[in-house]
Amino acid sequence: MTDFFGIPIPLLLGQLLLGLVNGSFYALLSLGLAVIFGLLGVVNFAHGAFYMLGAFAAWVGLDLLGINYWLALLLSPLVVGTLGIVLERLFLRHLYKVDPLYGLLLTFGLALIAEGVLRELYGSSGQSYPVPELLQDSVNLGFMILPIYRAWVIVASLVVCFSTWFVIEKTSLGSTLRAATENPKLVQAFGINVPVIVMLTYGAGVALAAFAGVLSAPIIQVSPLMGSSLVTVVFAVVVIGGMGSIMGAIVSGLVLGVIEGLTKVIYPEASNIVVFVIMAIVLFWRPAGFFGKD
Predict the structure, then answer these.
(1) 6-15, 53-62, 285-294: lowest mean pLDDT where?
(2) Does the structural domain 7-285 have CATH classification 2.60.40?
(3) Which residue among 50, 111, 161, 249 has the highest number of C-beta atoms inside a 10 angstrom radius?
């Protein structure tokens, strides 16, 4: 069998793998959003900007300081996560008790500021970031040539995603995080510093976005617009999986990336809207999302 309903099997499998790469980015980004919303109740519209800042931190570090890719994978999330902590202390902590719409508007404004500043400094054209030498080869799978770097993106994303899920859902630290956000006064009575936990949680969610930005830098052009073009899709992924659901963010991100990739082969004209069509159907059928709580 060389084709599937008229589509060559090699083309179908190749697009499936490419869709899985995109799905890895969706999963990693939507995971950060789910962590922040699920634990803090903040709709973080600046998530795309933090993703972009992570990629820019890696590019600037290489261009000015000679920081290689592997070190950037560690340093960029730390730097951007620290920036997120500063913003949380200055602005977001005042909005936890009010309507989530205020948090959305604030983070949307922060995203516009970050995008405008970097556009002024570096322009709108993209900057190239080299693939690390260790990952520059390709593997012949028979039906396609798979760059090792893309395989690395899938593996790294899955490891980080499921490690985060395990920490939040299966450890005492995760139990403390959930308790601190659901009943902060009770947790404070046990001597636990709830504001610090909240601050670090937001920083961790932001760091996940920056980590995804570093992973994407060798694949796409590093530009101030790279976050804004992705954040709407990621929000759709989070809604489909269930707002605040960690596992929902991971699974829906991977599945929707694959569906989007297959749509590019079967009906290319619909590839840019298929995620939003699915979101509309899910909202009509199950408003809480597949993994969300009613």
Answers:
(1) 6-15
(2) no
(3) 249
